[in-house]
Amino acid sequence: MFRFESPIYLYLLVLIPLLALIRIVAVRRRRKMLRRFGDMALLHQLMPDVSRFRPLVKFILLLTALALLIIMLARPQMGTKISHEKRNGIETMIAVDISNSMRAEDVVPSRLDKSKMLVENLVDNFTNDQLGLIVFAGNAFIQLPITSDYVSAKMFLQNIDPSLIATQGTNIAEAIRIAINGFSQMDNVGRAIIVITDGEDHEGGAVEMAREAKRKGMRVFVLGVGSPKGSPIPTPDGGFMTDNTGQTVLSALNETMCKQIAEAGGGSYIHVDNTNVAQEKLNAELARMQKGEIQTTLYSEYDEQFQAFGILVILLLILEICILESKNPLLKNIKLFRKK
């Protein structure tokens, strides 16, 4: 199994296309300036030692070396030992509402950020359990399949944002349906579906789907985030979301709907505010669930692989230094591609 010890450095890879774009603009500008002096064919004859391809090759080598250097900083590692272990725990599918209403700031720092913090703390509390992540708005999809890899869970959690789903709405029923099908096939294991939302069930059918989950031996917990009084929804430009008449839209927590879903799913409703009470209640509820034997595949004894990337970087830099900007005087009469 391949992984990165410091994946944050991989974001620096955005520099690669940016530098390539700058290079393209610079080359076009240089050609434009040369055309002011006269015919390009004549200029090439006046500068016989100038190579059109060597600078490009040198730039590609430097760009490749930079990309490999960034990957090296992220510390790539390879798992060399695979072990199958059996643990006693539960399986949990966590469905996070990422609709625009979750941007509201009636809990600090926002409904969505508070939800992500709660899930991260929940993961820290897990030991022998498995979990999966689902995101939903107008649609729903699995962000992370059921796993015991808590490091990956936290990494995927940080990437959760309303922009992941273009279709707006709050389809809680679809999120629960996907959660039901996302568990493993193991027997005698406690299974929990945790829905974190502000309770605006636009598509309907959530209560019926929660009953279906309960019928299959799963418990549905609903964490209601926000205030029943309502709060405006911030927009990326610094304003607030408005309706067709120009009035500011207020998004309120629908506790009635949240309680109905939790009751139908045989779980409980927990209100999330600016305290840690919701976290404590949820941990206590999950601790009471039946723990069963869970078989997990673990990769251990990871070997550092950055040395190979470092060697490639050094070789590319040496090659780049050896290639001159202009044609080599000793080799200028040698033409590999001679026109007939």
Account of the 3D structure:
Helices cover 38% and strands 23% of the residues. It is α/β, with parallel strands linked by helices and 340 residues long. The strands form 3 sheets. It has a 6-stranded mixed β-sheet with strand order 5-4-3-6-7-10, with helices on both faces. The protein starts with a strand and ends in an 18-residue tail after the last helix. Residues 336-340 have low confidence and may be disordered.
SSE inventory with pairings:
Elements: E1 2-4, H1 15-35, H2 40-46, H3 54-73, E2 76-89, E3 91-97, H4 111-125, E4 130-136, E5 140-147, H5 150-158, H6 172-181, E6 191-197, H7 206-215, E7 218-225, E8 231-232, E9 250-251, H8 255-264, E10 266-272, H9 277-287, E11 292-304, H10 306-322
Parallel strand pairs: 3-4, 3-6, 6-7, 7-10
Antiparallel strand pairs: 1-2, 2-11, 4-5, 8-9
Helix pairs in contact: 3-10, 4-5, 6-7, 7-8
What is shown here, in short?
With 340 residues, the protein is α/β, with parallel strands linked by helices.
Helix content: 25-40%
Biggest sheet, open or closed, and with what strands and sense? 6 strands, mixed
Number of helices: 10
Determine the mean pLDDT.
85
- Which segments are poorly predicted (pLDDT under 50) over 5 or more consecutive residues? 336-340
**Class computed from helices, strands and strand pairing:** alpha/beta
How many individual β-strands?
11
Largest sheet strand order: 5-4-3-6-7-10
Q: What labels describe this entry?
A:
340 residues, alpha/beta, 3-stranded antiparallel β-sheet, disordered C terminus
